[in-house]
Amino acid sequence: MHLTLHTDYAMRLLMFLGLNPERRCTIEEIAQHYRVSRNHLMKVALTLTQTGFVDSLRGRNGGLKLGKPPAGIGIGAVVRATEDNLDLVECFDAKTNTCPVAPACLLKQPFAEAVHAFLAVLDRYTLADMLANPKILNSMRRLLDLRE
Amino acid sequence: MHLTLHTDYAMRLLMFLGLNPERRCTIEEIAQHYRVSRNHLMKVALTLTQTGFVDSLRGRNGGLKLGKPPAGIGIGAVVRATEDNLDLVECFDAKTNTCPVAPACLLKQPFAEAVHAFLAVLDRYTLADMLANPKILNSMRRLLDLRE
DNA sequence: AATAAGATGCATATTAAATACTGATTATTT
DNA sequence: AAATAATCAGTATTTAATATGCATCTTATT
User: Fold this and answer.
1) CB atoms within 10 A of CB B37
2) Tens digit of pLDDT for each residue in A2-52?
3) Separation in Å, CA of A138 to nearest CA in chain B
4) What is the complex's ipTM, to 2 decimals?
5) Which nucleotide is nearest to B3 if distance is taken from CA to C1'?
6) What backbone phi and psi angles, to 5 degrees, belong to B67?
7) Is A48 within 8 Å of A13 (Cβ atoms)?
8) Structural domains of chain B, with CATH
9) What is the DSSP string of B108-131?
10) What average pLDDT does this structure show over A50-76?
11) Closest partner CB to A135 (pick from B1, B8, B104)
12) How many Cβ pairs closer than 8 A exist between chain A and B?
């Protein structure tokens, strides 16, 4: 059980923007900072833009900034937006299910409840919580300096 | 985010054994019942045998039966045994992590907590709960009859 | 001895995810 | 107006994880 890199990158991107609130950051620079595929990050940025977590501006001097204040960006909401398949087991999706016992099976309930609990925990945290530690800002700055 | 078929099949296998407590069932017949790969199910059976959830006997008249009473088989424990990679994000595993911010990042904590909550819910259920609905027995019997 | 079952290891196929590529669109600067 | 720098969009390719298949070995019963 794991989340996709899509979600992982989404969180990193949001953290980067949260640590640089005074300006627009380009996808290019964020990708370089994390040493991550620029193309993939671009799709992540698109998802986040379409869901309103990020505000994008095209053209020269364009780039990304947060679409909401960090305290308004819930981790659970981001995961729900970026992780498109939260169906834990085959039988969660009637379309693809092949298990003949599914209609009478009692397994779905606890799994659904477990996913709910999982997201409920993430809903208690926001991007602001992720930025609370001053060490992270220093660490990111240092890494940026090293690279340049 | 999803569990592997390995876990899915493990639960189905345990339910089948739980519904047929009076005899040993062969992997072959369970695979046929769910219309599932016999080879894959065999590996699932091995995992469950090695972790004690299932008791296996080789040779003629051999087969599988539950290794413990249904009320002693927790869903959370089964998931932990069959799902080998519960590392939600890359940085959970220091060996494979590539994110340069990981040491200072605050993201790990909420995700770890969320997985914990997820498993805690499953720990509240046992195989006995899954077998509580008489409809499932009927449904399985009917499907078995149809097939033969 | 023959047979029927699980155990084991290796090989292959399938699928989802990640990445790369190409071109289009938009805005700014000169 | 032209050049440039950025995001947006769609498609194709690569890669890795998962699932499946196959061959052989071991064990127990008849």
Assistant:
1) 13
2) 899 999 999 999 999 999 999 999 999 999 999 899 999 999 999 999 999
3) 9
4) 0.88
5) D18
6) -90, -15
7) yes
8) 5-143 (1.10.10.10)
9) HHHHHHHHHHHHHHHHT-BHHHHT
10) 95
11) B104
12) 140
